[in-house]
Amino acid sequence: MAIRLSGMTSGLDTDSIVKAMVSSYTTRKEKYQKAQTKLEWTQDAWKSLNTKVYSLYSNISNLRFSTAYNLKKTSVSDTTKATVKAGSGAPSGTQSLKIKQMAKAGYMTGAEIKADSEKTTLAQLGYTGGDAKLEVKMGDETKSITLSASSTMNDVVKELRNAGLDANYDSSYKRFYISSKKTGVANDFTITGSNIDGASALYSLGIAYGGEKTTTGTYSSNPYDEYAALHGVSDDETRAKIEAAVTNYNNLTTDAAKMNAQSKNLMNAVNYGYSYVTLQGIYKNLDEKNAGYSDKLKLLEKLGSSRDGAVISKNGDSYDTYTKTTLTDTKGNTLYKYIDSDNNSHYIAAVADKDKDTTSYYDVTESTRTAYTDADGKELEAVPTVVDDTTLKVGDKTYKKDEADGKYYLQKEDGTADKTDSITVSQKTEYTIAADAVNKTGIESASVAYDTIIKSMDEKTKSSYDEALASVQAFENSKDEVLGSDDKYSVASLTKAIQNAYAGNGKEAVEQLLAGNGNETDGFVNKANALEEAAEANTKKAADSNIVKELASKQKDSSEYTQALNDLLDRVNTAYTLQNKALFNSQVKKVAGQDSEIELNGVKYTGDSNSYSINGLTIEALAETGDSAISIITSTDTQGVYDKVKDFLTEYNNIINEMTKLYNADSAGSYEPLTDDEKDQMSDKEIEKWETKIKDSLLRRDSTLGSVMTAMQTAMMSSVEIGGKKYSLSSFGISTLGFLNAAENEQNAYHIDGDEDDANTSGKTDKLMAAINDDPDTVMQFMQQLSTNLYSAIGDKMKSTDLSSAFTIYNDKQMKTEYTNYTKTIKEWEKKISDREDYYYNKFTQMESAMTKLNSTQSSISSYFS
């Protein structure tokens, strides 16, 4: 802004005069600024409320399904032996548990040595060798350690810990104590020397373990025997033995992987088979009520989450699916795309009539033309003249093609290209509704069609349908990572077998296929168990040759394979030498890692920890029970179900009370947001009070808020039919207090009779808890349907429109546009004010200049008379 010096000659307060002269412009600008501020506050109010409504919407999503209410509690007859928690899938009743064996971690107590402190060195223990190389093996992982004569007991402890063990040296008892960090056979450990000095160092440290000493003076578990067994009379023979072990290991693991995959598929196919039968039964019943519903439903199932952006069109006995695209026709109408069996694309345009709230669909014609766009991406109004393949003319301007990027650049007088002025030539595809196009009939919204069919089911059928469909789709969409599609137990083969069985003789044929006829080798279940046992046997055999596992993982004939083979050769040769030369401490004691073993209802389970998750039960074994069994009693958690309902109502009440308060807020009257000048005249407290008055009233009597409230209240007041009888919230002692008894703005909130936390209803009979105890299934089915009704009501209000985004209950897009328009308008008025100020200041400057000249002339004339 230019510096203005005015009023110096005239003595006038020019700034004040100019300010007064443009005040009408300033008032208009401030009007838009206040409106924008108010809009911003309204946006903030809606955002806050929308977040809470969306949270409720998300939370009640799970309440639509039985698993949300299928809460269980459990008790154990002897809590010193085990603790048990029940999940929603746990069956009610009494079960028998035996804890046959607890999982243990591998543990070693070293022999007594002559190390008086943690600082004692290996040399002081009599070790005279060089670099002592050790190997610590835990499960499939091997880590190397190097010690020397100067290594202290502390150094040894540190190295063992770095290798993944828990280790400690106790100078009082002069022993090492070493253990695995995890329980189970797979997590057990061995410590061996990988050279003569390593074996010698272990002996000096009192941790050279070779098992129990036999009567012949040998040791029962010489740790070097496994590697030494691969030793041959020559290195070539040793290599041959190693490679034969690798081949055997690969065959065992490959077969085990295949059998495990087959077993897994068979077990999954069992669930698939029963679910497939259930689904076909539902389809059949649908068609009996509404012919053709099953075919339409199968199509809509395949669309899945794409239903919201698709429409379907009747085509004879089948349907064509048109999915929403980002394309538009020449008039801006959204296009939907259908791909036929020959992979040809067809488009229809959706023409919305906002006044009638309807949408019509028309076929469009597809055409391609050459388009010319300038450097800003705007299409040229006049089509250039094509001189030749490399030259375009626009009026008297010549553009030449640049072969590097394909654009045409303006040619300057000196023959060079002007890179700021270019033309891009491209082929533009356009879609146009023909003048004689007829509105296509029979087109339905895919999501609406799906909802219509789903709503035709009763709650029990809907629950069965959801579970069966999820199971069927999960299996059919699963991929075989190990098996080929031609394997008789692949997903594709098993799917075909089950579907063929159903097509042949319905439900009975499928059940025969899955369960068999009593023969041990018949039926999917028995076959799966047999394959699992065979895979387990192979895995155990492979574990016997686990020393070649790392080598087997390398690509044969690669440099990595050659290096690994040579390393293993050296290890075998060393082990062969150490097999007879290594010394072992007879006093060292080793407790092997042990897996746990339990029996639940007579079925044996094993694991590397003492924790199990079986059929909805989480079992933590604490002590062995021997042959005695303890009881696990599982039942419905009635208090948990009650709390689930109460928590839902609490969240609903909080939101509906806030909405009611916002809707019924006092009017702010003539209060408007303050300008900076107005704020300067008030204290901070006065400003806060003023603005709060406005903010509290922003959603008063808002039609959008009112419609959301009405939708939610209608859903909550709806009745649900279960077993031919209608139920509502009042059936379970849940109701509002009404306008006369409720606190201000809380007349729409629900209260539970007998709720000890609610002073309004605590003295009444608790009908809800009584109903949960007497007939939990009815309560659960009612709450599922009520939640579904509320979820749908809120979901309908949160659908995306031209004015609002998805999952938004207010017109956020419209408000954003309005805010942008205000910003633009305010800038325009600021420009007008600036222009008017410049105009007036210019006039006053001219006046000041004229007065200065006049004063100068008067001074000159006066000087003649002085």
From TrEMBL:
It comes from the Bacteria. The keyword Translocase does not apply. InterPro entries: FliD, FliD_C, FliD_N. One of its GO terms (cellular component) is bacterial-type flagellum filament cap. Keywords: Bacterial flagellum, Cell projection, Cilium, Coiled coil, Flagellum, Secreted. It is found in: Secreted; Bacterial flagellum. The keyword Secreted applies. Residues 593-856 form the Flagellar hook-associated protein 2 C-terminal domain. Its main location: secreted. One of its GO terms (biological process) is cell adhesion. Residues 10-105 form the Flagellar hook-associated protein 2 N-terminal domain. Residues 249-303 form a coiled coil. Belongs to the FliD family. Required for morphogenesis and for the elongation of the flagellar filament by facilitating polymerization of the flagellin monomers at the tip of growing filament. Forms a capping structure, which prevents flagellin subunits (transported through the central channel of the flagellum) from leaking out without polymerization at the distal end. Homopentamer. This is Flagellar hook-associated protein 2. The lineage of its organism: Bacteria, Bacillati, Bacillota, Clostridia, Lachnospirales.
